Amino acid sequence: VQLQASGGGLVQAGASLRLSCAASGRPASGRPLSVYDMEWYRQAPGKERELVAGISRTGNRSYYADSVKGRFTISRDNAKSTVFLQMNSLNPEDTAIYYCATSYGRRVSHWGQGTQVTVSS
Hints:
Order of helices and strands: EEEEEEEEEEE
Helix content: under 10%
Structural class: mainly beta
Number of strands: 11
Radius of gyration: 14 Å
Shape: globular
Strand content: over 45%
Number of helices: 0
Largest sheet: 7 strands, mixed
Mean pLDDT: 95
């Protein structure tokens, strides 16, 4: 499975960015990609990777880290095997490498390569 993330960049505080992650390939488990939850994680310099947001396979349930609630919105398009992260009101504390991942049974199954988000003050 390949997870291709894009949409990162350098922005000023208060700006918005929209990350995308396109999934392709066939999981070794034999399950189709559509049954996996999709998640976004981030890792800032010197810090551990943390869960930012996740969305269930049908898209009817989403969850967020407290630090991004009300500012970030996760969505998915199963027809295109793509998950999105709309990030508004960005602040310097959001600076990190953002990773998308698939999740099944509350465990990450596949990781994508990261995309850098840098927010200047």
